[in-house]
Amino acid sequence: MTTVTQAVLERRSTRAFLDKPVERSTLVSLLQTAGRSPSGSNLQPWFVDALTGDELAAFLGEVKKSMAVNQRGEGSEYTLYPDDMAEEYRSRRFRCGEDMYATIGVERENKMGRIMQFARNFEFFDAPVGLFFSINRSFEQPQWAHLGMFMQSFMLLAHEQGLATCPQEAWSAMYKTVSRFLQLPEDRILYCGMALGYPNPEAPINSLVTERESVKNFATLRGF
């Protein structure tokens, strides 16, 4: 049995999946258990839409149509990264991208190669299941944090079952197509998507292990 510690340490953002379906019962079990995640006053502010099979194929067809017209996406309803992001955060983001592209041999000068790899986001990296997470527009930062805790629980539980995930904020740039296809009510805002499936152990891109800061760089301990 995978421990919580193992799941946290071993979880990766997977970008290459096997052509192997995920059973409905498995997904329902993961969602049900993740639903035990904490939320202030037990609001449980999360909503999930899952697509697979013909529904996923139909959706991806709509995405391709939109991308043919909107090559830079459809905009976003929220800001992913602030323009005035401090240097330490910009450096981490840069390093993450460089390390990822290095696994597949795409140099920084290869602009087209990087664009093509980024576009794979909008195919869920060929994962058999695509998930979308949304939240009521009336909620603010606390409830968004609770949605994040639900997603973390889901990803760790998926890892325990031998599955892999990749949370994708990139889908916020296709919110119009997503919202239209899923028929999200007007009081719902899309946060992100997530690829779910069985990881391809032979894919070089899945070898990426991103760096993490030492505790001394982000925590202040007093009285210890």
Describe it for me?
The chain is of the alpha+beta class. The chain has seven helices and four strands; from the N terminus they run ααβαααβαβαβ. It has helices spanning 4-10, 24-34, 53-69, 87-103, 111-119, 141-160, 175-182, and strands at residues 46-52, 129-136, 164-168, 188-197. Strands 1-2-4-3 form a four-stranded antiparallel beta sheet, with helices on both faces. α1 (4-10) crosses α6. The chain is globular and about 60 Å long.
Short synopsis of the structure:
The protein contains seven helices and four strands.
Keywords:
224 residues; alpha+beta; NADH Oxidase; 4-stranded antiparallel sheet; 4 strands; 40% helix
Task: Give the secondary structure arrangement, pairings included.
Blueprint: H1 4-10, H2 24-34, E1 46-52, H3 53-69, H4 87-103, H5 111-119, E2 129-136, H6 141-160, E3 164-168, H7 175-182, E4 188-197
Helix pairs in contact: 1-6, 2-6
Number of domains: 1
- CATH class category label: Alpha Beta
CATH-defined fold name: NADH Oxidase
Class computed from helices, strands and strand pairing: alpha+beta
How many beta-strand elements? 4
Indicate the low-confidence ranges by residue numbers: none
Helix content: 25-40%
The outline comes out as globular
Terminus-to-terminus distance: 33 Å
Oligomer class: single chain
Mean pLDDT metric? 97
